[in-house]
Amino acid sequence: MDSSSDFVSEFKRVLSLIYPPYEFPDVYGRIFYFNWFPNPHHQECFQQHCVDVARRMDALCRRDHLLQEIWKEDITYAYLVGFLHDIGKPFVTRINFFGQQGFRGHAQVGARLVTLRFQDEIPEDVLLTMGVLIDCHLCCLRNLSFSSEHRLRVNAILHMYLPTLPHLLSLLMRLHSADQSSKQPPVQVDGSGYLYQAPFTFRKGRRVVIFLLGPMGSGKSTIARALTEELASCGSVLHLQRDEILMKLAKEGESYSSCYYRIKGDPALKRQLQTLWQECLDSASADILLVDTCQTYFLSNMIGFENCF
């Protein structure tokens, strides 16, 4: 790609190749005319961000010849991943009570859009890699600002659930770097927080603790039920759910969402919730604990207090 080309024309050209407007008029229109509201994370527009991340991702991957096969014209798979990493946002946009946009689930929707669009055009193993990268591009190991304990937890989950694909974590670091450095103002990224081999199992005394990381509605409870059945032969299993513990602090008739944001804005309530977590852990007698953590791997859903396990 010519780095001096205008991002608007480049965005339109690439999007037209991916979703020709005469074949996909609705999808093309939703993406082409979308933009986010002014916000602290993006002073650049959506189209510029997509093109810039695509260019950066392609350049970062070119050094080690990763995802450099050509899809069409001069567009590599690496470029496609960068270009499409936020493609789900136009389809999940919600505006909250304060007039702020939210894009919860956009990574998962984007990964599915990409899989459906290219299932007959891109080799299955490459498409799986692209889908996983887009699905996981919000992982909080974008930098080392978190504790070693927290990074180990996230690494454990990555190794537990991500498929075995060549160079996957290396590619994920490159996508994080391209995404964060493209933002205006740019975010400095240190991607050395990934472990290329699974870390040791977490233990608390003689108990095994498995952390389920994810935002509300991401399927943690479903995974916990499946794991409970799978691990039953290894010992007693107990699932500690954040939602149930958090709602112990709810006022009469208060919804989960209202309770969540009330606690989030009150340091004293945060400490009280922290104490409840600790009490639940101390009183648990199972051999294996499945824990919904208070911090998730989506930055936008962090409740903002220290880990307590």
TrEMBL record:
SUPFAM superfamilies: HD-domain/PDEase-like, P-loop containing nucleoside triphosphate hydrolases
Signal peptide stretch: none
Listed Pfam families: AAA_18 (PF13238), HD (PF01966)
HD domain residues: 48-127
Gene3D superfamilies: Hypothetical protein af1432, P-loop containing nucleotide triphosphate hydrolases
This protein's name: HD domain-containing protein
Annotated organism of origin: Trichonephila clavata
